[in-house]
Task: structure prediction
Amino acid sequence: MRIQLSEHFTYKKLLMFVVPSIVMMVFTSIYSVVDGLFVSNFVGPDAVAAINYVFPWFMVLGAIGFMLGAGGSALVSKTMGEGDTVKANKYFSMLVYVTVVLGLIIAVAGQFAIPAAAKLVTDDEVIYGYCVLYGRILLASQPFFILQNIFQSFFVTAEKPRLGLIVTASAGVINMILDAVFVVGFDWGLTGAAAATVTGQVFGGLFPLIYFACKNKSLLRLVKTKIYWSALLKSCTNGSSEFLSNLASAVVIMLYNYQVGRLVGNEGVAAYGAIGYVMMIFYSVFIGYAVGSAPLIGYNYGADNRAELKNLFRKSTVIMAVAGILMTSLSEVLANPVIMLFGYEGELFEMTVRGFRIYSVAFLLTGFNVFGSFLFTALNNGLVSGILSFLRTLVFQVAAVMLLPLVIKLDGVWASVIFSEFASLIVTATFVIVNGKRYGYFGKTARL
Result:
């Protein structure tokens, strides 16, 4: 059943619409975790630590796709809500073409930059070698990786979230199968894991490019266009919160690596790497919901349908609360069996499980903050969205991860995210309440 952006959404219909985006984001995280499992079990903790050192740099690069995808889809869905589908397709096409050019530039320039970047994060020769090896292979697929990120948002705007899910799932299956073939079967080690990831990313970026370039039954198609500088700037400002979120997360991961490395050495970095892999799955549920619901908010904002905005806001708040409780509970119950999958033993296992359980408490609050930021992105208010993202992912996190370990040592590192989410919730709630009447998502007229 095709669900249109213009419909009224009950809980059932809303979940049906956003579930493909949630599964898409979760699946993306799962195949990253599978990479980690193969590397930890068949290469070793040093390789896991190396990936965790390099990962922040690729978060920054991937942030370009998330920025243009989230910000651009908000603009495109708003333009469609205003009734101008021709201009919406021109905006969409421009953003895709710009992404391709940026990806090619990054892929080439990154080959020269990765050795220096690796030197900044480690002086261990073995881990340094792993960083450069893994980084250079992944840089080759950056144009496709960034395209994959931008299309995750645009599949939803095109009313094809299920197709987006199929593409992402297929890319993940390719990655996981090739992990087994390359890492275990061919014994290629970290090179095999990187090659498997690259192959999945190429498929994930190339298939949507071909789909939208051909005649299709979605709302969007690649057409001849030009650079609309104001629309490009608007997309970047709309999506600035997503860019800042990924950029800040990269900085924070570096600080986490520094703190756990200072307190317990490379084993601490390996522990944080495992925690990060698994937490990424849970966090992606919130991101997936936000990505899936944002075009609905943007469309109804463009159509000035305040009753539906109120309806979507109320239901989203309830869903975020329930999801937070479920994910924290699951994390506490599954901590031991999940960390066992990484092959960790002894003190490393105990340290990782403890960190996992402390970290997971933050999920009680995370959903509200993620949705709040995406809400303002969808409403084309990049400034507020950017402020919320900057404070949550950088200012509060940096303050917490630098100060709490002074008081409660390693537990302070794991608990930093709880402090950050709590402080962010106060700020997010303030902005949401203050702007409620302006955008019309508060009130008593929402239908149940």
